[in-house]
Amino acid sequence: xxxxxxxxxxxxxxxxxxxxxxxxxxxxxxxxxxxxxxxxxxxxxxxxxxxxxxxxxxxxxxxxxxxxxxxxxxxxxxxxxxxxxxxxxxxxxxxxxxxxxxxxxxxxxxxxxxxxxxxxxxxxxxxxxxxxxxxxxxxxxxxxxxx
Length: 147
Prior knowledge:
Number of domains: 1
Strand order of the largest sheet: 1-5-4
Strand content: 25-35%
Structural class: alpha+beta
CATH superfamily: 4'-phosphopantetheinyl transferase domain
Shape: globular
CATH architecture: Alpha-Beta Complex
Order of helices and strands: EHHHHEEHEE
Number of strands: 5
Number of helices: 5
Radius of gyration: 16 Å
């Protein structure tokens, strides 16, 4: 759904990322696994994935990791210049579709470069050993006053 007063805009970036779930699982099994989780995921993302167990939990985390990378690519920034993985949050809406919320420097960067009218389209998928994310960043345009 579009914000009030906005109309479809232009694509400002596209990003994709694929993660081997085995890689995420291996990190979680290491002594620094808890630190990795805190550095990469928001508390809400962890709460979502922690409701699952085993490979389903790993898939949940891997999809969000891939999504964060895809979003950073769509933004055109990557994770640098003060933009952290926890500045990008991916949670499902009421129907289960992934929704993106930006925080911190990621949000500030988009407001500086695009304005407040940005929407992310995000698709997540996983199959056996891989998690995949595809993201499109769209700059929303203000509707003309005479419409």
